[in-house]
Amino acid sequence: MKKKALKALLYLLLTVSGLFVVTFTVYFFNLDMKLTSMIEPFLLKHYDRIPRNQHL
Amino acid sequence: MAVKKFKTMVNPEKIKGDTRYGDLYKPHGKVRKRREWRGVQDTLYDYWRWLGIMMTLGKFVMVPRNVKAMFRYRWMANYLAVPMMVDRFTQGLRGEYLRMAHEEQDLIIIDVAKLLNTLFRGDRRIGNDEEFSKINVLVDENEMTAVMMGFPNLKCTSRETPSTYVSVLLNQHAAEHYIDVAQEFGLAGDVCPMPEAEAGVSIDDDAPILGACAVQCNTTCDGSLLGNGVISERLEKEDGIPVFQLPAPLRHKQDDVQDYAAEEIRRAIKFIEEHTGHKWDWDYYFECARRVNIATRCRNEWLDMNKTDYPQIFGGNLALYTETNYMAICGKVPDFEKCDKKLMKLAEQAYKKRRMAAPEYRHRAIVWGVQSHFYMDFLVWLLNCWGIVPLTDMLSCINTEMIAETDTPENREQAYYDMAMLTEEMIMRNRTHGGYKVLLNDLFRFVEEYNADMIILWEHITCKALDGMHGMFEDRARELGIPLIWVDHQLFDPRVVSRQGVRDQVNQYMRTVMQEEPLDPTLEFLDDENSW
Hints:
The complex is a heterodimer. By secondary structure, chain A is mainly α. Helix content of chain A is 82%, strand content 0%.
């Protein structure tokens, strides 16, 4: 029982550490902004294609 | 007259981590190379808050109608840049200053996410929840929302706040498309680009359609009146949403206009009651009034602190929060009361420790005029690049008086005058209108009170309200021996004066007139024209 609990704790620690390493890398190297800056041009093209009822 | 000069203060504490902030910029880039290293503790804190922001954004996109809205409204693309806005405003900040910035900005992000949720739920094109739409009252972006302080079950909803105001904070180029659309349809190009962009959103058929009714305010200028006309025409004639015009007096310091101002508030409330079926609730009003007073008390104390050698809540931390808390929130959201108290605690803590936000404080400046919206983080730049401490700005110099907060028959009558006063003392209009005393004399009174040795004077090119006093500002500054730096800009349009164009005006003055070298030379010239 104790061994199982220790194993679960180890897995939990590894998962949390893994998540920390991945998210901290994304954070520090600004990867989130680098990705979204690549999405923006596609969105702008999409908006240009939407039919609009433009008037004063 | 000798030129006034503040004695340079050197920070006894070393700034941990990066100190060459310009190196983080990628030439021609939209985003930065990497985030700032602030020492272990502050970097981990910033990372933790970044995770919180990502959670807020994650929750937002989990709602299908929000994703639908993302593909419908052009201005929604700017929200891709939310984390970068926070990075810009927290540049160089450590310790308590970083925590204050996050307390404010993270709350503002949550509040804007809630506003977007509200808009899209009621929007006829997206969520189309008709019952929900009926409890929404639309208001302008640049409008005091005091008339909504007695309606606990109604939502005070601004379409312009997320479509233009916040968008330009996120992305300097956000309003350009809408300004162009407005001008393509024949609207004048020499008006303030803020209302022009708001009108452009309406003309471009890019505003959510919802609400039982709308209340517009004669904000401050010709551009605002022009924009409101275009927007209300579409709201009333096409969308069937009735609009009330709330004309607050411009001579707001005169006693003879106050009865009229209070009467307009009564009429606005009656209009809302008629179109929503909801009745004014005095208990809720006085609860909100109590929170307005807490915010005013806190702001007064922060400004008093900024008059000392150790200012704490200043620059971007003061300007952005005040704009949100004073007008859009106006006592209606309890979370802002909690934030006020947290900020006060952090400020007091930092003040006791005599903390400084930069390696050196070389100048104490009052920032006056209407600041460039596409470059609000200029205040952080002033501090980091030149050691100029922006003690307060014109838009943060608003009401300092307490309003009635206990429910008595006399105070119910007084409440209309209080709401009128808050509306008249609205951000920007309380200085750009009301005569030379509030615009010119008060500036030099603040220079004395804050022991400032410099004035940064924004010249918003198409703001006619301020341009007329150009010479009077110069004459008075010369008389008193206060260095005054004019900084031209076009509020929402960086194509007229770019961010570097804004910086160049300060750089040239500091090098030639003041004969100084920058604190951080990497920030003097930045290739950020393509940046968000």
